[in-house]
Amino acid sequence: MHAGFPDFRLGNVLATSFTGTLSERHGNAVERIPTPHRLIDWLAVNGLAVDSCTTAQLGLARELRESIHAAATAAAIQDALPASAVQVINDRSAQGRAAATLTPEGQRRWRLSSASCVEDALGVIAADAISIIAGERDGKLALCASPTCQAAFFDTSQSRTRKWCDMNTCGNRQKKARFNANQHKNPRSAE
Ligand SMILES: [Zn+2]
Fold first, then answer.
1. Which three-class secondary structure state does DSSP give residue 79?
2. Is residue 129 part of a domain?
3. For residue 181, how far is its CA from the centre of ligand 1 (angstroms)?
4. 154 CA to centre of ligand 1 in angstroms
5. Where is the Zinc finger CGNR domain (predicted)?
6. Does residue 8 fall inside a structural domain?
7. Looking at the domain assignment, is residue 1 inside a domain?
8. DSSP 3-state assignment of 143?
């Protein structure tokens, strides 16, 4: 539908899927929500459909995203949370008026106060970030081992030893790099 824009990375944790809309922060950064319309698309994919989004609302979303990234990174390395990031997360959480609703099938759906309320959707994302940073959920915040990525992700693996934010991108690239390095060292064993 929106050819030419970078794909979204899908994850099962809302807050870190959201921070993943900017990737390769320490390399050639890829912005996956470059326009208000792409934010609308991302929210729809994540169960937070809105009808419209202004440039100012996209600005709020990106500010929240980078604040979650900063706070989650600090939490992952057990550093003090940056006060400005905490403030933004709390402001977005307080401003949102989304309601959790239960479907007859027993699933949770978010109901936004109006279809134009990007702020409601951001409130849901901010609350999700709070729950993982506060350590309320089963899992551990960690940083991606890829030097160009270093994204904060939520490790829910049994052993809590996940190394990459995303197996299909950072994980694969790292594996390939190691494979090529080994081939270079032992050219004959590569056959
Ligand atoms: Zn990564």
1. coil
2. yes
3. 20
4. 12
5. 141-181
6. no
7. no
8. strand
Q: How many domains is the chain partitioned into structurally?
A: 1
Distance 108 CA to ligand 1 centre (A): 29
Q: Is residue 190 part of a domain?
A: no
Own/partner contacts of 2-5, CB < 8 Å, gap of 24 or more, are: 2/37, 2/38, 2/41, 5/32, 5/34, 5/35, 5/38
CATH number at residue 23: 1.10.3300.10
C-alpha 4 – ligand 1 centre gap (Å)? 22
* Residue in 133, 130, 127, 22 with CA at minimum distance from that of residue 73: 133
- What is the span of the domain harbouring residue 96? 14-185
Compute, in angstroms, the gap from residue 143 CA to the centroid of ligand 1.
Answer: 8
- Digit-by-digit pLDDT tens for the chain (191 residues) are 456 888 888 788 999 999 999 999 999 999 999 999 999 999 999 999 999 999 999 999 999 999 999 999 999 999 999 999 999 999 999 999 999 999 999 999 999 998 779 999 999 999 999 999 999 999 999 999 999 999 999 999 999 999 999 888 888 877 777 777 777 766 555 44
How far apart, in Å, do the first and last CA atoms of the chain sit? Answer: 43
> Residue 170 C-alpha to ligand 1 middle, in angstroms?
5
Q: Name residues whose C-beta falls within 8 Å of residue 42's C-beta, 6 or more positions apart in sequence.
A: 8, 18, 21, 32, 33
Amino acid identity of residue 154, one-letter, is F
Residue type, 180: N
